[in-house]
Amino acid sequence: MGLMDTRTLILVNVMLYALYAGVTLANARIFGGSRGARWFAASNLSRAGATLMVGLSNMGWGYFRIPARAVEALTWMLSVGGMMMLHWSFVELLERGPILRRVQYGLAGAMVVATTLFFIWPPPLPLMVGFLCLLLALQAAMTASVVFRFSGEGVGFAGWMTGIALSLYAVTLVVRALWSLQYRAPDYVGMALQMDRVWMTVLLLTNGVIAFGYMFLAAAKLRLELLWRAQVDELTGLLNRWALKRSTMREIQRCRRTKGALALVMMDLDGLKAVNDASGHGCGDVLLQAVGSVLQETVRAQDTVARMGGDEFCILLPDTELNEAVAVAERLREEVQELVIRYRGETVQVMASLGVASSTHCGLTWQGLLDHSDAALYRAKREGKNRVMVAGGAGDLGPALVRERRKR
Fold first, then answer.
1. Which of 28, 231, 276, 295 has its CB 3.0 to 4.6 Å from that of 34, i.e. a possible disulfide?
2. Residue 203, SS3?
3. Could you give the 3-state DSSP secondary structure of residue 271?
4. Beta strands in 279-373, from DSSP E residues, in sequence order
5. d(Cα 231, Cα 75) in Å, to the nearest integer?
6. Full set of structural domains in the chain with CATH
């Protein structure tokens, strides 16, 4: 089966560009994840306009009486602008900031200069077309490099397919640019028309992959963002209870294989309600954020800190014996007590009570560690607060009071 004729290919490409733009905007509005969607839609509309101008200039459609040079110049500017916006859409979607933006501006500036020279001192049209194809190929290659490099885990397949499509499009543009150097050949016009049909066909296929790749990437990024929000406490940025349980279950499986020890520390702030009553919940939120930061800075990289809710935190300590866990808990208590928060001219401090449970005495189960550390925490509360208590196992080790810091 042969290729479609050029007019049909142009019409199909223009309609698909418009369809991709509409679907992208509708998808972003309905399901969220609008990052980069406007740039992607604008890119498709800009390139649709460029493709339509190709039809108007080359195929003699309609009753338009626009100077040929103006049509060519507008086509080139829409093409380069569309590819620039395509680059920005992927950069924004993948949260890469202004990466390669200056290079894109440089290529757009080169196109402006070339277009100006085209009006003042017009070179052969095929050479200008070849120059445009090289610029578009560079833009497509840069966008492909961003997609390949920053797609990340969880979106690998969609990222690779999109990057491959962009790379194929860049290669096709380079071939078309090299072909334009043959403009002095006797049969160049016929071969150029055939080349245009090949280029339009490749454009049709690659743009479809790029459009669906963008939508798959957007959906994957949205899914990862929702998964992250489901695991992270919004106020403090720490893991939540559900995420801590998953981490603990993984560590329990590992400890069963390696015969290692696991410790869990429960911590409750003493006096947060008084702070909320005296200074407002805004002050309490700032205090919780500060405590969360202190906990993360104090423990090891392999330890896990989570906010269980309210003023209660939990710290998972892998490969940690009971005496080591008690030392960590005492260090955390001291760090919290020494924490001073200034809020609207007021100085705010709190203290913390902590309960420590070890798998050595309480068993290597999530519920057992949680229940024993929670019981030790509430014994610390009952016995005066601002202290660390150790949970006993079945044999009831009894509460072990770690030195109480002198009150200020």
1. 28
2. helix
3. coil
4. 304-309, 312-318, 341-343, 346-348, 351-358
5. 48
6. 6-231 (1.20.1070), 241-390 (3.30.70.270)
